[in-house]
Amino acid sequence: MQNVLSLPSPAAASSRLSPVEAWQKLLSYLLQRHYGLELNDTPFCDDIVIQEHINAGVALADAVNFLVEKYGLVRIDRKGFSWQEQSPYLRAVDILRARKATGLLTRCKKHNGNQPDGRFTL
Q1: Where are the domains of the chain?
Q2: Contact of 97 with 103, CB cutoff 8 Å
Q3: What gap in Å lies between CA 97 and CA 38, rounded to an integer?
Q4: Which string of b and e fits 82-114 if b means at least 16 CB within 10 Å?
Q5: The whole model's pTM is what?
Q6: Residue pair 74/44 in contact by the 8 Å Cβ criterion
Q7: Residue partners of 39: CB distance under 8 A and separation at least 6
Q8: What is the pLDDT of residues 8-20, one digit of tens each?
Q9: Which long-range contacts (CB under 8 A, 24 or more apart) does 79-82 make?
Q10: How large is the angle between the packed helices 92-101 and 60-71, nearest 10 degrees?
Q11: CB contact at 8 A, 98 and 32
Q12: Sign of the torsion formed by the C-alpha atoms of 29, 34, 40 and 43
């Protein structure tokens, strides 16, 4: 019997993003789509800043919403006017849509979602 060590292929290993890379990808999408900003326009252009937020347990939406509040950012992705005041802040659904659009949200092949009951977790 031959003993073979199975290692993931380099392609599989490189397709997994680090938490900082995932934040960069999501932040780039969210900032461009919702506020018309580039990642380089924010403190998040620095990997260390992102890592500090991750280490502190700050949620991605909270990090962006802090920028929204601090700089008075206005969302550019809203069409027309509404009788209701439209919040400039990101919501969980915005993060979910960004994860799907950037390929960071994938469905489990065994289930409809990544949970046995078909739900997704963030």
Answers
A1: 17-101
A2: no
A3: 18
A4: eeeeeeebbeeebbeebbeeeeebeeeeeeeee
A5: 0.72
A6: no
A7: 24, 27, 28, 31, 45
A8: 444 444 468 899 9
A9: none
A10: 110
A11: no
A12: negative
**CA distances, 57 to each of 54, 62, 88 (Å):** 5, 10, 23
What's the angle, vertex CA 76, arms to CA 32 and CA 105, rounded to 5? Answer: 45
Q: Does pLDDT of 58 surpass 80?
A: yes
| DSSP string for residues in 63-106 | HHHHHHHHHT---S---S--SSPPP-S--HHHHHHHHHHTT---
Q: What percent of the chain has pLDDT over 70?
A: 69
Is 45 a residue whose pLDDT tops 90? yes
Q: What separation in angstroms does the CA of 92 have from each of 15, 62, 65, 72?
A: 25, 10, 11, 20
